[in-house]
Every structure is written in C-alpha cells, then in structure tokens.
Amino acid sequence: MAMIDGMLQELEQEAKTTRRVLERVPGDQLGWRPHKKARTLGELALHVAGTPGAVATLASQSEIQEPDFKDASPKSAAELIPALEESVATARRMLANMDDATLNGTWRMKRNRREVLAMPRAALLRSIMLNHWYHHRGQLSVYLRELGVPIPSIYGPSADENPFES
Q1: Sheet holding 63-65: strands in order across?
Q2: Which of 44, 91, 92, 134 is the one with CA 20 to 30 A from 122?
Q3: Residue 78 CA from chain centroid, whole number
Q4: What per-residue confidence (pLDDT) applies to 31?
Q5: Residue 24 DSSP symbol
Q6: Distance between CA atoms of 53 and 86, rounded to whole angstroms?
C-alpha cells in the first residue's frame, strides 16, 4: 500500500463530514462574524470548501512563492457544496500522481527568494490540507452554534444529532 492511499481514504471520509457541516450554512448569514478580526461566515465556509484542492495544488509543486492569502466571499450558500466537490476532485487528482518518493521529497515556500518553510510533502499535506482543514471546520461549527444552527454529527454525536440512533 502506497503512503498516499491512507491519505486519500481520509480525504474521502472527511469530505463527507465537511459536506454535512457546509450544508448547514445559512445563506442569509454569510456576512456574520463573531468578532471584528474574524472571517465572516461566508469567508470561512468558502475557505473550508476550498482547502483540500488548494493545498494539494500547492503541494504538487516542489517550490512556491508565498501566496497572497485573501479570503473570497461566496455570493450565496449554494456555492459551497459545488466548491467543496471541485476542491476534493482536484485534491484527488493531484494526490493520485504522488508516489512515496514524491511524498518524502522536500516542499519549499519562499518569500522574496528567501526560504520561509521547508518540509516533506507528506507533512505539508497532513498538517495543512488535512489538520488545517479540520481546524477551520471546527471553527465553522462554532459559528453555526453561535447562530443557533443545529450541528451535524462530526466525530460521533453532537448535541443536536446522534448518528447512532434511528
């Protein structure tokens, strides 16, 4: 079994969970934010939807210049699930081409020709494509709770939903 196989399985499983959370985003609250320094609900939801594909695309290169991180805002909540589906499809495509040697190879990010980050590609995918994704999905669930939206099951029952009861 190649190293990438487990990551692809995890991506598929977590995409289902992420979809359940994104389906709950209320379209009439996209501009809401819990604090003036925080992303809006729409910005955060779109970031969550796009993370896997964006990070897999970056990881497919051996070296990048630091991206200009700017949050896009969806015009409607209807954009979120198609954005997630496209993102996961992109991640699947990019990861399918990575063998163990590629995953163990060093990935670098530079700012003004100076290296600011270097790590094995597998570590980038684990920490940013997956762990970072889960972190922001967790933030999104808190936003939803603050807005009174029932939280779906993520890793077992939530206060609003128990997948083990019928």
Answers
A1: 63-65, 106-111, 114-120
A2: 44
A3: 18
A4: 98
A5: T
A6: 8
Q: How far is CA 142 from CA 18, 20, 30, 45, in A?
A: 14, 14, 14, 12
**Nearest Cα to 7, choosing from 134, 96, 108, 118?**
96
Q: Who's near 32: CB < 8 A, 6+ residues apart? A: 40, 41, 143, 147
CA-CA distances (angstroms) from residue 49 to 74, 83, 93, 148, 163? Answer: 11, 6, 16, 21, 23
Q: Helix or strand or coil: residue 1?
A: coil
Exposure string for 44-82, b = 16+ CB within 10 A, e = fewer: bbbbbbbbbbbbbbbbbeeeeeeeeeeeeebeebebbee
pLDDT given for residue 21 in this prediction: 98
Three-class secondary structure assignment of 76-142:
CHHHHHHHHHHHHHHHHHHHHCCCHHHHHCEEEEEECCEEEEEEEHHHHHHHHHHHHHHHHHHHHHH
Regions in the chain scoring below 70 on pLDDT: 1, 166
Please give the pLDDT value at position 136: 98
CB 57 within 8 A of CB 80: no
